[in-house]
């Protein structure tokens, strides 16, 4: 398959959206709509205490329902993934950590760098910066309860929470 025409149909500070015309090996044409993030990379943080995973409950436009997800966001060209992860953790939860572990990178061509961090027993108090992003609550999920069943029961689609389940299963 090869692209024969690309039309930019939307652009903002975060994403480009294209409607591409492609030619299949059969000789038939097709159309594909796809998006590309404009940030250089993404970051996701799986914060934890000795007993719990710390997640957020947020409403993400246009879906009016609350979703459980991990703190995450876009990286910046002039910063490292770890510094961006620290920024996202602070903005979305008000938490900090001195103990960070890089777990790896997911995705291609847009890469998301995934970290875990121990936040100790800090008081959970939703910062104003989180409220401006649709985040409504910080939640504690006991490590023993973050299972595939929890993912299905809570209709979790955040790939980084699903990754946390995998990380736990691998222990």
Any chance you could write out the topology, listing elements then pairs?
Layout: E1 2-11, E2 15-23, E3 29-37, E4 42-48, E5 52-59, E6 66-69, E7 72-74, H1 81-93, E8 99-106, E9 112-118, H2 128-131, E10 135-142, H3 148-153, H4 159-169
Parallel strand pairs: 4-9
Antiparallel strand pairs: 1-2, 2-3, 4-7, 5-6, 5-10, 8-9
Describe this structure in words.
This protein has 4 helices and 10 strands; from the N terminus they run βββββββαββαβαα. It is an alpha+beta fold. It is elongated and about 60 Å long. The termini are far apart. The strands form 3 sheets. It has a 4-stranded mixed sheet with strand order 7-4-9-8, sandwiched between helices.
Summarize the structure.
With 171 residues, the chain is an alpha+beta fold. It is built from four helices and ten strands. The strands form three sheets. Strands 7-4-9-8 form a four-stranded mixed β-sheet, sandwiched between helices.
Beta strand count: 10
Residue stretches low in confidence (pLDDT < 50, at least 5 long) are none
Give the amount of beta strand, in percent.
Answer: 35-45%
Radius of gyration: 18 Å
Structural class determined from secondary elements? alpha+beta
- Kindly state the mean pLDDT as a whole number? 90
**End-to-end Cα distance:** 41 Å
Identify the overall geometry.
Answer: elongated
Helix content: 10-25%
Strand order of the largest sheet: 7-4-9-8
Question: How many helices in DSSP terms?
Answer: 4
Major beta sheet, specifics?
4 strands, mixed
User: How do the SSEs run, as a string of H and E?
Assistant: EEEEEEEHEEHEHH
